[in-house]
Q: What sequence folds into this?
């Protein structure tokens, strides 16, 4: 518990056998996390076996590989089912340090934001951590484009380190989003569309052989998907289309 709020960390896992235990240990060291949920997306290494040895961790598995977005959908549904007040997504590949969990949770607990991102760009953490130059420049181009087309001014839209309030996850129809990598961007556009401001903290990052990375081809497809999401948001706002992604979920 942190100020009376239940903190749940979710880890969407795929072939993370080499790093998941190290990530888990650092999460536990923060001393505010009540539960860790690992959702394995049909890994073909020992991720599941290792995850099941971790104390205070609940492990869920997909019977087949469904994609990064589908993994997150399961993560958030399970976290809400477990009564989470704050949900923090930490990738089990140890690219993002769990040491920022208290800071990110604190910004939500103190009612400053409903969503907080761990930014690799603030403080030049991305380049120091070894982010490939081509990936850095694509990140900057896409981010500046999104800042121009969306009602926000973020340092980056593409980090996988995120914290959400229960209220936010119950309002966002994330079930209607993609099962692939574009899910992350769809979530942020939905959050902005519903009028929630987004906070950021500076996050050092580590790029190494065990850390997950998407290929150049998938990065290009991801970039094209971002423009599709932005146009879908604007066309929905103008009433040209009726997208279920931008319908706030009804309270139960």
A:
């Amino acid at each position: 518990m942190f100020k009376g709020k239940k903190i749940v960390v979710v880890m969407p896992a795929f072939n993370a056998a080499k790093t998941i235990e190290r990530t888990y240990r650092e999460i536990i060291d923060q001393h505010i996390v009540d539960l860790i949920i690992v959702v394995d997306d049909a890994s073909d290494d020992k991720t599941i076996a290792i995850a099941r040895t971790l104390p205070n961790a609940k492990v869920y598995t997909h019977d087949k590989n469904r994609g990064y977005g589908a993994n997150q959908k399961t993560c958030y549904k399970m976290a809400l089912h477990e009564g989470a007040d704050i949900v923090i997504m930490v990738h089990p590949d140890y690219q993002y340090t769990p040491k920022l969990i208290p800071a990110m949770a604190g910004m939500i607990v103190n009612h400053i934001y409903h969503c907080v991102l761990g930014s690799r760009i603030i403080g030049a953490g991305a380049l120091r951590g070894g982010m490939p130059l081509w990936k850095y420049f694509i990140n900057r181009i896409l981010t500046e484009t999104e800042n121009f087309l969306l009602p926000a001014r973020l340092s980056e839209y593409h980090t996988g380190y995120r914290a959400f309030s229960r209220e936010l996850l119950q309002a966002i129809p994330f079930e209607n989003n993609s099962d692939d990598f574009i899910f992350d961007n769809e979530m942020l556009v939905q959050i902005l569309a519903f009028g929630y401001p987004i906070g950021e903290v500076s996050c050092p990052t580590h790029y190494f052989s065990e850390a997950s990375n998407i290929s150049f081809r998938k990065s290009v497809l991801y970039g094209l998907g971002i423009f599709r999401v932005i146009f879908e948001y604007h066309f929905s706002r103008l009433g040209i289309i009726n997208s279920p992604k931008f319908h706030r979920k009804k309270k139960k």
